[in-house]
Amino acid sequence: MRGVDRVFYITTPIYYVNSYPHLGHAYTTIIVDGLARYYRLKGYKVYFLTGTDEHGDKILKTAEERGKSAQEFVDEIAQAFRKTWDDLGITYDNFIRTTAENHKATVQYVLQTLYEKGEFYIDEYEGLYCYGCERFLTSKELDDKGLCKDHQKPPVKLREKNYFFNLEKYRSWLREFLLKEDPIYPRFYRDEVLNLLEEPLPPLCISRPKSRLPWGIELPFDSNYVTYVWFDALINYLSGIGFPHNPLWSSYWVNAHHVIAKDILKPHAIYWPIMLRALGLPPYRKLYVHGYWLVDSLKMSKSLGNVVDPLELSKQYGRDSLRYFLFREMAFGYDAEFSIDQFLRRYNSDLANDYGNLIYRTFNLIEKYFDGKVPPYSELKEEDYKYREVVEEAINKYLRLFEGLFFHQALEELWQAIRYSNVYIDHTAPWKEIKEGRADRAGTILRNLSSAIKAFALALRPILPESSEKILEFLSVGNVDYSVILNWDLPKEGASVSKGAPLFPRIEFREKVESKNSQGEEKSHMERELLSIEEFRKWDLRIGKIVFAEKIEGTDKLLRLEVLCPERRQIVSGIAQYYAPSELIGREVVIVANLKPAKIRGVLSEGMLLAVHDEKGLALIIPERETTPGAKIS
Ligand code: MSP
Fold it and tell me: Which run of H or of E encompasses 313?
């Protein structure tokens, strides 16, 4: 492998210090932390940079409003960001602040170099200036009332002499770079930028008169001006690795990756590569762009007052639970909705029910029947090999998907194997083997499971670092990397195993349930049709365990399921648009067991699954803990 491929440089945006960190900031930082941990586990030399963006008019104004000096104010909030990342266990290598001397020196070096190369020209310009955006706006950036689209405020007419950077000169190079190198992911964001590049690029005003805006980095060639806050901010990606004087910078820069949200696509996809090109430096390798966290369909932001505090969530439910939710719930590139109910639902179903249970059951059986020592393998049976195959396939898919930033799909794949593990333990029933005197058979099953749990914990280290570490400790595996992920001889025979305390105890919570009539008013009891208890008793509701699922060809809604209830029966269910067949295997659901059998699209259906349908889609009704197939619901 070439040298460049063994280093991995990754950055978050540097966050403005006009507000405290919220869940949106935490998402980007946690995703970057996950990627940094992943590449470290793969043996790369990783450099992870984050920090704060501290210049500009907005920050000066906020400081004044709070009755503080600008420096005092930025120190305070920069510290809050640093503390939040420390409290969340973020493994950054450097926290850059744009008010730090080394950053200022790098910005001035870049400005001077570009000035000497003749990239800037001075011009008198009259335009519409938005103080929120801290720049002149073009007519396209105004709405039909003439307000700034982002800030919903009227821009101010300003006439000023300033320094400008001719971006247009680099437009065709940039187009070619975006097409040839394909550096922006997901690709639809690249296409959005290519669209902007269809028209000439207006010059970028890179200065602000000090008389109007004193809080910035002075232009080294004209002390009447400071530089534009974005020009200053983007350079953090170079100053943070010691550009230009520390020779280390170039070894990292060759494999640079930036993660941002879509709000700051333009400066990263247009200004930044052009600045680098003008400087004579290679552009970044990849720009990863994610969507917004929304609350009730609106972007989470300080100005809307709908922010969620990531520290509160992590204090209440654990850092790993917060990380799991963020990785699992957002399809990278698209917006996702945050709600505490969904957070807890995910926690209970995936972490408490599927993963936590599997670990606790397996380790508990080893403690109880094997004196807390990993039992030896005896002969492996067909079902054990099949289980290994399922785990190996899921782990390989997970790693591939994770690397491609398909985090939610990666987790879905892994969870199929985790759920299947619960099916494997149920079917092979090691406790029964013990009771019937076949301890060697029980040992083989439990050792197979322990090795799979080691693989899950290792795979999940970038996402669930604390619990993975604990699980590997419970298994006496120690600090291993991905090279042993599918080694079925690890943990070693005889190694001690302890079950510890449950890692993800269930959280009881009350979901908000709505009961409204068509006018949106609460329905009274009288308005609802009431059933007698005798009528209700006619319903034969039972727990069914799904053991097989497939799509019915030629339909897009129907799945054919095989369900243990306790006998095996076939059910046709219209849930294909909400659940993938593989996601369902091993799940316990509620079925109506005494429905008259019927043929649906020619396929016999012997029952019906119960589900709830709300504005978020469809969710199956599942029991609160693992139960017995066929158990009656009353
Ligand atoms: N200071 C600039 C960035 C300069 S980088 C050279 C800035 N700062 S910011 O504080 O506004 O941070 C914006 C970033 O915060 C987004 O790109 C994203 O990473 C994160 N997010 C802020 N709100 C968010 C959501 N509601 N949802 C997802 N990410 C969010 O822009």
Answer: helix 310-317
